[in-house]
Design brief:
By secondary structure, the protein is an alpha/beta fold. It has 13 helices and 14 strands.
């Protein structure tokens, strides 16, 4: 069994490549839920939906989020009513969020609701929210404390990061399917997602990091940084806030207590000795995923290492 730890777009790219090579019954994806937000009366799980839509072949490639062929009539009507429209919900995407919200109100846990939604979309790979408990990421900025989605979407990551809070994380529990997957995994892959606010909350769920340390699985991580830059998102300012140099060595150090192998981009090959000094094996390759072929190639390399 292969378990992948994923955030949103970057993680979903590698997940898509893995799904092209790995039988669905031995692949599971644990997804960050710290980005979840309650908005316009709906419970929205952006990272879960990004992975789910990607595996269903429904994701918008151009935008990197949401559904392909989306329309926006509902948002236009929300605007006419004077409601907040900074967080775009497409007409088709609304169906997902309405069904999720109704199921949660009926008392079903998020992991059960997610499993049902992915089945209905024909996704054979299991998608596991990191927890069924509420966890919310807040970013402290000069203009106030913002929900992660307010910082990321409304403010476009522009404000300086003064602090990061994962509200509810210390009291959360791993979702039951995640507990099972951690115990059964033969290989664990940390995808190239933001190590602070995407992978970080997964590792911060009490018991998860200990399970990774104790696991007999081969544990691999893919760098989310190339030449000190993220392909997308606020990884660099968040690492600087955490007192970390924005490079692959810092990412490897964050995971070094449980990791076996680190995949380094070929443009950063000079950093290999520093990462090996952490006690990790290093594989150097092209980690940039811009096409379906790139995703499949990187996934194949990871599977060859395993």
């Amino acid at each position: 069994m292969i378990l992948a730890l994923s955030g949103g777009v970057g993680g979903a790219k590698l997940v898509q490549g893995l799904a092209a090579h790995v039988p669905a019954d031995i692949l599971a994806i644990v997804v960050n839920t710290g980005d979840d937000i309650d908005h316009l009366g709906l419970h929205i799980s952006p990272d879960v939906d990004t992975v789910m839509y990607t595996l269903a072949g429904l994701a918008s490639v151009d935008r990197g989020w949401g559904l392909d062929g989306e329309t926006w009539s509902a948002m236009d009507m929300f605007g006419r009513y004077g409601a907040e429209t900074w967080f775009n919900l497409g007409d088709k995407d609304l169906a997902t969020n309405i069904l999720r919200t109704e199921a949660l109100r009926q008392g079903h846990p998020l992991s059960v609701v997610t499993d049902e939604l992915r089945r209905r979309l024909g996704v054979a790979v299991r998608i596991l929210p990191m927890t069924d408990d509420p966890v919310t990421t807040y970013i402290d900025t000069p203009i106030g404390k913002l929900h992660f989605q307010e910082y990321f979407v409304r403010e476009r990551c522009a404000p300086e990061v003064l602090g990061i809070e994962f509200r509810g994380l210390a009291a959360a529990h791993p979702s039951p399917p995640l507990q099972t997957a951690l115990a059964e995994a033969d290989a664990i892959i940390v995808t190239p997602s933001n190590p602070i606010v995407s992978v970080g909350p997964i590792l911060g769920v009490p018991g998860v990091r200990d399970a990774l340390r104790q696991s007999r699985a081969h544990r691999i991580a893919v760098t989310p940084l190339i030449e000190g830059q993220a392909v997308k998102g606020p990884t660099v300012p968040m690492m600087r806030w955490a007192g970390l140099a924005p490079n692959a060595v810092s990412v490897a150090r964050l995971y070094s207590d449980f990791l076996d192998t680190f995949i380094l981009d070929e443009r950063d090959a000079a950093l290999r000795p520093d990462i090996e000094a952490l006690g990790l094996r290093v594989h150097v390759t092209d980690t940039l995923m811009t096409t379906a072929e790139d995703k499949a190639r990187l996934a194949r390399e990871i599977l060859d290492l395993l």
